[in-house]
Amino acid sequence: MLCVFLIIFAPNVHLHCKQARVISEIFQQEFCTVAEKVKSKSSAKTDYAKTIHNRKARFEYDILETLEAGIALQGTEVKSIRLGKATLDDSFGLVRGDEITLENMQITPYELGTIDNHDAKRSRKLLLHKDEILKLKYRVSEKGLTLVPLKLYFNSKGKAKLELALARGKQLYDKRESIKKRDEERAMRRGD
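RESULT FIELD:
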């Protein structure tokens, strides 16, 4: 930085050509290393898992309605989710009084966490408006309807969000139809 100051703000200082070349080479090397550090920091953020999907949900359930809910997490849970170490398989929403909790969601304990690390399968509170909770409570009380998480992701503000579905379980023949449709779509895409 001092070299740049001398060259720009002190025009009456006479430098030989060799000295000016050396100064410009040093400046370019320092500038390139700073640019590389900035690139490595920005690429490090993209290594995180974008979304965590519940792949079984659409196969085992008919999705009637979806909504987005916030989820109350501890710090180490957020870090584990960002690393992609969470699963939504076999998880479900449960209405308890005036709140909805997510049960059986597996979040692997954070490797660098301390003794205050979280439990892997604890109940997690879902953050919804009161009218949404009452509506879901009424709909779940109907025969055969349940709350199933479809995906877990981070929104543009960095908040963890859960796509929650109101669903009805499929019968065995419905699952067979789903498999048949999926196979036909694959064959069409391949051009068979």
